[in-house]
Each structure stands twice: as structure tokens, then as C-alpha cells.
Amino acid sequence: MTSRNTIVCVVTSERTWRNLLHYCFNHAFKAQRHRFHLAVACNGASDAFNGYLNSLEPDYLIQRRNLGFDLAAFDSLLKAIPVEHYDAFILLHDDHWFDDERWFDNLSALAENHPDVDIFGNLLDCSCDKLVEHFEIISRILGYGRHMDNPSPVFAQGVAGLFTRRAVELWLENDGIPHIHNNLKNVAEVCERLASFILYEAGCTFMQIPPGFQRYLHHGNHRSYVLEAPRTFYGKNVTAKHDQNET
């Protein structure tokens, strides 16, 4: 991962952009800013936000109507940037952050040491996670029913983390990241899971960013007491292999 092939994609809104001051664009982020391209999508318009953002000199900026939560903003951003120019995509919400100035080096090493992994993120186990009500019905109504036959065992929380170009291109081949054009939170949570289900069905492999859930890629003020995920790797092939090794 270098400045030539890595882009950090950040989504925010006219109501929440000040999170960038306290979380995402902290000292650790700014210390590495020269090493990657930056793309920002904002749901809504704010003169104060525009003035602040100029100091970060984003390479791409999308401002859109404030509908569809962050998934819609991610979708708009990935469809607007030249995806073919990048090998690695780091997707962050405005309240994601690193407290380690070597975060870019560490994520780069993680990707280089695990070339078969397409998604590095904070992974939630679907068997433990309480899915929103009527999850399968909503998925089928939205046109993603095929993913219910063999759903992924995990999903990347917030569609955040490090994604390969292969993963992003698979989203684009499937009409982008699932999202809605309103602010129904429960439906947006369904789409958040479906984004991972699409990649799982296509054969992508997931890995929890060590040392565990939200312990490196922080999210707001949350502190996780989960030291590590139940399994490190997830995918159609590695899951089967892991299960065989445990028997």
C-alpha cells in the first residue's frame, strides 16, 4: 500500500461532520495524510464543513442530498472515483479513528502478509448479532434474496475497514453497495449486512483486524472487551477448512 495505490474514503454529513475533529481526522490520521489519496462524501451541505475540509486537501469530494445514511454516501463515492487507479480502499465513517501513528504501515503489512484476504474490518458474527426484525423479508423485497440461501457468517460493521479493489469491483458489478433513499435505520442495517453478503457469495475472504473487534480501528467512544474474534478468517473455503481442523 502506497500513496499511488491507496485511497481513504470517508463519509460524513452536514449534521455529524464535527466528529472528524475529534475522531477520524485526528493527529494520527493527519501524520499519514501524505501517503494516500483522500475521498470524502458528505450527506448534505455545510459552509463550515467545506472550510474545514480544505485543510485536508481531498482528492475527491462528493456532496449529496442527506438521504440514505452513510451507505448511500459510500456508494456514491465509489461510483465517482476511478476505482481502477487503486488497489486498496480504506472506508471510514467520521467517527472511526486510529490512535497509532503507524496505522497506515500496520494496515499495509496486514494486507501484504495476507494477500488472499479481501476485507479487513471489525467483524460481527451473524449467529450472535441480533439481526433487525424481518431481515430476510426486507432483503428479498430489495432484490437480494439470493444471498439468503447461503448468508455470510459475519459482516463488516459499518462497511468500514480495508477492502481490496477486487471487493470494490464486485460491489460495482452488483449495482454498488446496497442502500436506500430514505433514512429508515432498520432497513439501512439490513443493507449494511447485505454489503458483506455480496462479497462472501462471490468468494471473498474476511479477516478481523487484530487484536480484536474495535480494538485497533476504533469507533466513537466505544471500547470493546472482545479480545479477538471467534475465528480470525471467514470465507467459503477457509470456513470449511477451519471447521475440519477443529473436528
What would you note in describing this structure?
The chain has 247 residues and is an alpha/beta fold. It contains nine helices and twelve strands. The longest helix has 17 residues, at 185-201. The chain is globular. Residues 242-247 have low confidence and may be disordered.
- The span between the termini is 37 Å
> The biggest beta sheet, please?
8 strands, mixed
The outline comes out as globular
Number of helices: 9
Summarize the structure.
The chain has 247 residues and is of the alpha/beta class.
Outline the fold blueprint.
Blueprint: E1 6-13, H1 19-22, H2 27-31, E2 37-43, H3 47-53, E3 60-64, H4 69-80, E4 88-93, E5 96-97, H5 103-113, E6 119-121, E7 123-125, H6 135-141, E8 154-156, E9 161-164, H7 165-173, H8 185-201, E10 206-208, E11 218-219, E12 233-234, H9 236-246
Tags for this model:
247 residues, alpha/beta, 8-stranded mixed β-sheet, two-stranded antiparallel sheet, 9 helices, 12 strands, 34% helix, disordered C terminus
